[in-house]
Structure formats: structure tokens, C-alpha cells
Amino acid sequence: MPYKCIIVDDEPPATRILENYIGKVNFLEKTGVFNDSLKALEFLNTQAVDVIFLDIQMPQLTGLQLSKIISKNIKVIFTTAYPDFALEGFELNAVDYLLKPISFERFYQAVSKLNSEPKSETVIAQNSPDFIFIKTDGKNKFQKVFLNEILYVESLQNYVCIHTSKQQIITHSSLKNVIESLPSADFIQTQKSYVVSLKHVESTDNFSVFVNGKELPIGAAYKDAFFDKIEENKI
Q1: HSE-up of 68 (CA within 13 Å, CB side)?
Q2: Which CATH code for domain 131-232?
């Protein structure tokens, strides 16, 4: 199986070079290219990735900051025009640190290190992550939320409130975007404004579902899918 890779770099020439190099290596597979660290983070919350080619000098969220919050199972190869960050990059357990302009010889030397160590058994963990990151304010602050702590999610017009066993977290997003980040086996929409965690459902009838003592409505358009899920788990 090839290593699934993404490129995170806001410089188009550097991106094109890396795409070209990845295409020449049979044990690498490019699955995404991002010029924005925040968009890359959203992708990583839902998709399996083995390796990131990560530029350090990025707007909003730097490559170093991004590397500190992603899964430790994802290998990072830093790419930058600035050698000053090399020490910090290696302190973060990066596979390698490539200084631009990057030659193919140097690139191949770096990716060859991936085959010199066992590939992490992380497919299940990555395809079904046990957490998501929620943007909580306008200053690019992200809060880690474990999926097993989410009770239900509520749409509030242009915002979404994530109700957990510990707190309520409000983020500027749509319910659709949040649903796409949640595993469908564990969460289901019960009404246009609500998504519930099946793990935390206490009881239900034809009109309502009860989660942590809270009564939530079941909409007619969602009733069949919801009770199909209940049927799958009944005894």
C-alpha cells in the first residue's frame, strides 16, 4: 500500500515541484494539496493520511503549530526556505527537513526514510478518528473534542452548539459541515437542527429522543433512518 500524502504549502511553484516528485515515487500517493493550514486540518479530521509535506511559514496557522495538533501517527516532512527552524522541526520528531529549493535527489532521500521504519497501523484510527478540532473564536483557536464526549449537536442559524458531557462549545459553522466530520456509525440526524450520539441515547418514542435528560424532537423526514439505526442495535 502506498503512503497517502498531502501537501500543505502556500507557494504554488513549491507545490508543483512536490506534486511532480510524488508522482515519480511508486510508494507515494497524493491525496490532497492545500495552501491553507486550516483547510488541511479540516481534511485531516476526516481522511486517512500517512505523510504531510508541510511548509513552515504559513498564514494563520504555521506548519509548526499544525504539526503539534495533528495525530502523532502522521509523518511530517517539513519544507521551508528558512533553515532557522530545523532544530525545532526535528524536536517535533519530523521525518526530515527539506530546504527549498528542493532537488529530487534530496526529496527521495527524505521519503526513503519512510520505508526504513515500520508503517504505523493507523488506518482504523485515521479513518475513524476519536476526536475533532473545533474552531472556537475568530483568532484561529481550536479546541480538541473527543467524540465519545459529544452528546448532541444543535444548529443555531449561522452557528453550531456542540453539547458534550463537560461543556457546550459554539462554533461558526453549519450543521452539515459538522455532520461530515462525525462518524455515521455513531451519530445520526434526528431533525433539521439536531444530530445525536447513539451512544448517549437514553430512550426514545415516536416523537422524541432523550439524551442526557434532554428531550429532542424527531422530525418526520429523519424518522425512518433514525429508527433503522435503533433496530440495528436492539435486542
Answers
A1: 11
A2: 2.40.50.1020
Tell me the sheet residues that pair with 98.
79
Long-range contacts of 182-187 (CB under 8 A, 24+ apart): 182/132, 182/147, 182/150, 182/153, 183/128, 183/147, 185/128, 186/147, 187/150, 187/153
Give the global pTM: 0.52
**What value does the mean pLDDT take over residues 185-198?**
93
How many residues can be counted in the chain? 235
Residue 140 near residue 38, CB atoms below 8 Å: yes
- The pLDDT of residue 185 is 82
Return the higher-pLDDT residue of 84 and 149. 149
Q: Which fold has domain 3-125?
A: Rossmann fold (3.40.50)
C-beta contacts of 20-24 below 8 A and 24+ residues apart: 21/102, 21/104, 21/107, 21/108, 22/53, 24/104
Rounded Cα–Cα distance for residues 182 and 164 (Å) = 14
Given a cut of 90, whether residue 15 has pLDDT beyond it is yes
104-112 and 12-24 are packed helices; what angle lies between their axes, rounded to 10 degrees? 60
3-125 against 131-232: fold identical:
no
Short-list 58, 56, 44, 51, CA closest to 88? 56
Q: CB atoms < 10 A from the CB of 217, how many?
A: 14
- Give dist(CA 99, CA 13) in Å, integer: 14
For the chain, the domains span: 3-125, 131-232
